[in-house]
Amino acid sequence: MASPITFEHIAVAAHPKMPNAILEAGKIAAFLRAQGLQATCGPMNTPELVEGVQAGTFDLWIALGGDGTMLRSGHLCAPYGLPIVGINMGNVGFLTSIKQETWPHSLTKMLQGHYWLEPRMMLCAEHHRGEQCLGAWDILNEAMVGRGYFMRPVRLVTYADGHLLTTYVADGLIAATPTGSTAYALAAGGPVLPPDLRNILLVPVAAHLSFDRPIVLAEGSSVTILVHTDHTAALSLDGQAPIDLLDGDRIEVHASQFTVQFVRLQDMGYFYRNLTSRMNLNSLRDKPS
Q1: Residue 79's domain is classified under what CATH number?
Q2: Active site residues
Q3: DSSP labels for 218-249?
Q4: % the chain with pLDDT above 70
Q5: Domain encompassing residue 212
Q6: 162 CB-near residues (< 8 Å, 6+ apart)
Q7: CA–CA dist 10, 22 (Å, integer)
Q8: Could you read off the pLDDT of 195-218 as tens digits, one per residue?
Q9: Domain check: are 97 and 132 in the same one?
Q10: How many whole angstroms separate alpha carbon 109 and alpha carbon 129?
Q11: What is the pLDDT of residues 83-117, one digit of tens each?
């Protein structure tokens, strides 16, 4: 457990499409300034906030939204080692630490040093076509390689550490972090992994006459997925807009050099309490995250 950091300049970043989150961010910034701290607030895509992270201006990033907001915050903050604390204004909030109605009390505790930093593994996913690397991304939840617009399975020849693992004929294959084990991988029938692990979880989606069980790879493993298709295929990263894939493309996945640092105010058993409280939650509210 890392020693508490003294926070002096705090970014308060809201989901840009949640007016109530933007309003709440202003209230939080005013609260922090009343404590004698510097606070910069606004929608999370505001240039002042983004450029401040890149310049090392901030000591802490407060994210207001849901799990999608936390994922985007992780993408932005992890390369700069900036800790993130989430205030849940979305639906499920697996990754957030603070409820909207309790933030004055929770932030007061945090400013007094009653918190700990929880590192979360990220993955690096690379898109290769022949000898060319077309892109590389650091992700917190998962990379999903699957079919595109046509309702036909794709053939995914999968290697672990350079050795043939199996060939999936499926709608897709998810390569997830332990953090991502409670997201799409869970919906596809995968196991839940404790967040402090550094394993890669492979979960096939709608496998047809091929190996259909999830696999947990050892820490430090790498995965190569070779795409074979005569129609369309796509790569989705943390649920963002898909990237088109062609027959013969390959996706390489391994542990990222970056780690997301989440600020936690609960004791270390929080994960299982949150998990059991949310497993029967059927969120029907139409809220962005």
Answers
A1: 3.40.50.10330
A2: 67
A3: PTT--EEEEEE-SS-EEEEETT-S-EEE-TT-
A4: 94
A5: 122-258
A6: 222, 224
A7: 15
A8: 999 999 999 999 999 899 999 999
A9: no
A10: 50
A11: 999 999 977 788 999 999 999 999 999 999 999 99
